[in-house]
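Quick start: what a row looks like.
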Amino acid sequence: MPTAQTPAAGRKPVAIGRMSLAQARRVALAAQGFGINRPRPDAGTSDVGPPITMRHLQRVIDTVGILQIDSVNVLSRSHYLPVFSRLGNYPRELLDRASTTPPRRLVEYWAHEASFVPPQTHRLLRWRMARAADEAWGGMARTARERADLIETVRVVIAQHGPLTAAAAERLIGDDRPRERNGEWGWNWSDVKRAIEFLFWSGELSSAGRTSQFERRYALPERVLPSDVASAPDPDPDDARRELVRIASRALGIASEKCLRDYFRLKPGEARTAIADLVAAGELIPTTVDGWNRPTYLHPEARLPRRITARALLSPFDSLVWERPRTEALWNFRLRLEIYTPAAKRVHGYYVLPFLLGDQLVGRVDLKADRAPGGGGTLLVRASWLEPGIPPEAVAPDLAEELELMAEWLGLDAVVISPVGDLAAVLARQF
């Protein structure tokens, strides 16, 4: 049977045509960066390796292609967590520097929701920016239509005084019209905030980073993007969408059409056209995965390690698991974000992280960083749960080490296990 690549030492070639779910899981994990060891030992060992550097972070960026941003901070801002999952106890300042210090390795835009992407990927999304008037959320588009004067004022103020937060721009502009409360997302935004967000959507403004309160600092694109990207012509939209699907395919390894389009939130018709073009060019390989009841596509350079020995706590916004049907198909793991579910109706907790052990998702924990005013604090495990059929003794020691590593990474002093969940009693005995 033909293969997708010549096997490297210790790795099996990926067979084209059909693969088992177990093979597909290993392909997916390897594509997301879980097929190699972390750059230095885990917590609990006395041997400390060389420091984690920007080179290690760049490897993660090149592998996943995108980091989703979310404002929830009960544990850590979500974009830091996928890097921790792949590198372990890395300095978060590396990621801050990559997204705030020129020449930036990451810039923010609406890619998969609000996301950090490499500058070259930002350029691939200019066709989306050009559609702002038609596709931006209602309040933003309405402000752009009805208050052209304010749009121009915002442009001038940001050009003269940026980078600025929306609140700082609002104070400079002095627009004091009452805020609307109409039920849409962004319901309490001022007109200035809507105007700024419209300009950000349309690519006329970019983000030079975020404040400690997680507010964007808006600036002109030429002050944020590397000069060669800022001055480059807009790519053909079809070419750009094909490249976005290439990035998604490389990052996913094996994927359905829905997985590929979800990575950068492409529309179904746009994704189907790009996928068909790449299949015709031999850049995507149609493949059947046993038990996955949808057409799937294999990246030609996908790797199939003989085994995966990963151990990681995964953000619910991690690109490995953010497409929920794919997570269920590959791991039979049902992941739902319960942040907006009333507490009494939550099944697993408020901010729940799946636990990856080997090539399986074996459990999940509801985590909170309870930070002390003067520094330090406690990593609270508010609930801990096993997947069906998994013995707690097979999970608890590794999970305990990973929780200790996370506490160290977050600058917390201890891990405390609450007696909630079918793993809690065995996990608590590890501390």
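That is the whole record. The chain is about 40% helix and 15% strand. The first strand starts at residue 11 and ends at 12.
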